[in-house]
Write the structure tokens for this entry.
Amino acid sequence: FNLKKTDKVVEALEEKLRKTPNDAAALDELTAIYTMTGRFKAASDLINPRLAANPKNPDLLQARMVISDKTKNMSQLIQDAQTLLGLNVLSEEEEWDTKTTLAAAFQANHQNIEAFKLYEEILNHDRSDPDNWLNVVFVLESMGRYHDVVSLLEDYLAKFPLDQDRQKMSKSKGNVIDPL
């Protein structure tokens, strides 16, 4: 990542936008650079007016979701993810990725019931991914549903018996769960 070249590209894009302020490609590129370089306020300043004019633009919603995630603005991330999912424009993979992001945002925002519902839906969709199982475990644990945690971990370890690292982690936390 060359900052000198990036600075020159930013200067050129900013100059281009002074001349043609509605150049969508330049706005998108500058937003992406601002986001990559941690200039989240500047990126938001470019996205928010465009979203105000076109609140159902999937690309802008996704861009603002990235910024919201980086800045820990879970309320905005939740709102944008729900809007994006409601548009029914995502591919199946993008939809599941967005649902996973939304569930994580719910959990970070201490909305555990909503997080649990989404994580459970994700697990029921794809039981082959260990992370899907563990996401449900973690949200159940944060809800204090320890009996459900133990039951799900037993099922998890039966399905993924070679997951020795996670078995060790479980035992080191004082949980004695024998998968066999």
About this structure: Residues 175-180 have pLDDT under 50 and may be disordered. The two ends are 49 Å apart (CA to CA). The chain has ten helices and no strands. Residues 3-19 form the longest helix (17 residues).
